[in-house]
Amino acid sequence: MARITAGIASSHIPLLGVAADQGKAGEEYFKPIFAGYDWTREWIAQPENKPDAVVLVYNDHASAFDMKVIPTFAIGCAERFGICDEGWGPRPVPDVEGHPDLAWHIAQSLILDEFDMTMINEMEVDHGLTVPLTMMFGAPEAWPVKVIPLAVNVVTYPPPSGNRCWALGEAIARAVDSFGEDLNVQIWGTGGMSHQLQGPRAGLINAEWDNRFLDMMTGDSDEARWIPHIEYLRETGSEGIEMVMWLIMRGALGKKTKCLHRHYHVPCSNTAIGHLVLEPD
Ligand code: DHB
Ligand code: FE
């Protein structure tokens, strides 16, 4: 039987992809940011922690989708996902290998569980998905895990509610549990933390709020699922709403979690970087 063994949360700031690709991760500005991932890189390289597959919850930033099509929740069922061109050419990282059998199983289980997923059989992925892979695995020839992209609309109003995201995470856990093959599956929630990229409040960071949110991810509190959109907007800026994707990860870990690793750093580009490694407890 497949099981969700851990959850990882991470910001997905494109500048970190640039730093890694151009060999700048050791520079003064980037050093403390990458150092906060050292623990995780060592941990995930241990055979007992290395997932067979990752359900990677992320958002597309008008790369694969645009105003013509805006799926609220979409699941990537393809064999392979290419790397999209975000304006400077595709990142020089390997294509992402999918897990079609598990992805179709999760899609079926979610839809029959009343989560109306969009199924995607051809898609390129952007920094929302590739930057977390880089932070966890560095620059391998091929990514060492299979990835099921789970795309969430947090770009065009209205994004899904925190409660709906948490419930989707719970349903993903049920789906994984009912897959026949013995697989170690992780779920990652990406994006955040506080940031606003445009308008008069561009550059907004709220470290106090972010750290309370990090606290809420550990233990048995489900307070975070009830945070309304307006609070994310007011307290964490227009792009802070990406944090609802962490709630899908958190919901999938069950009633209680244990925190194995926590990292927070300001600034990284325009954003507060947050990273957690959690286990179901
Ligand atoms: C930045 C952060 C993001 O989450 C993103 O998607 C794009 C840019 C930034 O801080 O530059
Ligand atoms: Fe983003």
Automatic annotation (TrEMBL):
What Pfam families does its record include?
LigB (PF02900)
Gene3D superfamilies associated with the record: LigB-like
Tell me the superkingdom of the source: Bacteria
Q: Which InterPro entries match?
A: Xdiol_dOase_suB (IPR004183)
Key words, A-Z:
Dioxygenase, Oxidoreductase
Which residue numbers delimit the Extradiol ring-cleavage dioxygenase class III enzyme subunit B domain?
Answer: 8-272
Q: Does the keyword Oxidoreductase apply?
A: yes
Q: Keyword Cell cycle: yes or no? A: no
Alphabetically, the GO molecular function entries are: dioxygenase activity
Q: Which NCBIfam families match?
A: PRK13364.1, PRK13365.1, PRK13366.1
- Protein name in UniProt: Class III extradiol dioxygenase subunit beta
Q: Which organism is it from?
A: Novosphingobium beihaiensis
